[in-house]
Amino acid sequence: MKGTAKTKALSALFAVTMLSATSIFYMQVVKAGDSLKDDGLPSGISKVKVKPATDDGPLDEIISGWHFRSKETKNLQQDDFENPGYLWVEQGEELWATKDGSKGKSCKSCHDDPAKSMKGVGANMPKWDAKLKRPLTLEQRVNTCRTQGLGAKEWKWESREMLSMTAFIRNLSRGMPMNVQADGPMKPWVEKGKNIYYTRVGQLNMSCSNCHEDNYGKNIRADHLSQGQSNGFPTYRLKWQKIGSLHRRFKGCMKNIRATPYKPGSDEFVALEIYLSQRGKGLEIETPAVRN
Amino acid sequence: MKKAMHTIAVCALIGATAASSAISINDASANPVTPDKVKVVDGKIKTPLTNKPGNAADGKNWFANRKLGNCLACHVNQDMSSKPFHGEIGPAVNAVATRYSPAQLRAILVDAKSVFGDQTIMPGFYKVDPGQRVAKKFKGKTILSGQQVEDIIAYLLTLKK
Question: For labelling alongside A30, which of A93, A226, B48, B131 has CA 20 to 30 A away?
């Protein structure tokens, strides 16, 4: 386990060779559904296609990105023992109990058993923070705990530590419906995110909706367009050969349409994340999802 | 392993992120009509963008090239059936020459919105900074040069079946 945690650069090959080892540890971490259904997810997350809970959304049905992937990619996610994303989940579990910072504390010092204290948390983030008077994404919440609770340095957005911790926490909500607050003080953030979602940008002059609302289910060259839902993040991407954050995905989509992306963690991307959670409200958390 | 296969088949998006911007729109001799001077009238642009006639063989390349037209990202093209991964976002371009005149094709390519309306997803290939927040390396540039547009038109005119 220690060996895994120390790994800094995970090359493709390394990740593959580590798979078998990860699986063994994983057995001790979360109890995987042992009976896999044909084209479904392991028990507990079989319902990946649901009607929107609210009827003010633009979509008739909300569909997890899992459905749009190839059989091989689907299977890789389905099988917890093969899913390379569990490498990060497992590293996150280790970090949970690792002391850091001037106060000599770990996450465990305050939150104890994560299976109890963190269950459902990942399904409700981003969440309004009354003290800071702003919403916090899971990453921002973790960093607030690190600076204020632990007296430790912030983790970088796309660092191995942050990806591991957020994958670990979100995984503890796996199978639970996304349910992020949208009313009250969150309302202006939903609106801001919606505005970004429908604004055309870049040299190709496209909006998120052009691909993920108007054309999902169709092929765009070699890629099968999904609804661009957020329920699987952090997601293991075969293209990245590692797990990545939702904001990294936003950046990628914006670059592809030749626009200047916003920065990960910016208010714009936080708003976009909040808005996406409304579009996908009721979809079950799949972290760590596997996509191409 | 399986993964290698995935990665190959995966990452074709509309514009490659690492696209080079080798497109020059300032080649005055071949390219006298600058983007701001082009006018669409009744869904047509009658005057070619350059003095040099379009080259269909070149146009065929630009049509498929991911960093240039990347038309194949959105359009099925029977004439390229040997190439994998034809997109399904727009209509198939099979026999497109039987449906449109050169002047109409020119308008579609230069500024698809002027023909199909503002809602269309098809980019304007000879427009400067159409969207907000255009990435720095594409600022002030068109997706295709005037000559490349003419080449693609020449190619599309060969699609009669």
Answer: A226
Domain residue ranges of chain A, discontinuous segments joined by +: 29-71+179-291, 86-171
pTM of the model: 0.86
Q: Write down the H helix ranges in A201-266.
A: 208-212, 246-256
Catalytic site residue A110? no
Return the residue in A72, A82, A221, A292 with the most chain B beta carbons within 10 A, the one to mutate for interface testing. A221
B125 lies in some domain: yes
The total number of structural domains in chain B stands at 1
Q: Which domain holds residue B135?
A: 2-156
Is the domain spanning A29-71+179-291 CATH 1.10.760.10? The answer is yes
Q: Say yes or no: B6 contacts chain A, CB-CB below 8 A.
A: yes
* Mean pLDDT (chain A, rounded): 85
Nearest-Cα distance to chain B for A63, in Å, is 19
pLDDT tens column, B149-160: 999 999 999 999
CATH code for position B93: 1.10.760.10
Instruction: Flag whether residue B18 sits within 8 Å of chain A, measured between CB atoms.
Output: no
**A88-146 confidence digits (pLDDT tens):** 999 999 999 999 999 999 999 999 999 999 999 999 999 999 999 999 999 999 999 99
Interface predicted TM-score of the whole assembly (ipTM), two decimals: 0.87
Q: What is the per-residue pLDDT across B118-144, written as a single tens digit (0 to 9) for each?
A: 999 999 999 999 989 999 999 999 999
* DSSP symbols for A122-137: GGS-SEEETTTTEEE-
- Domain A86-171 falls under CATH 2.60.40.10: no
The type of residue at A285 is: I
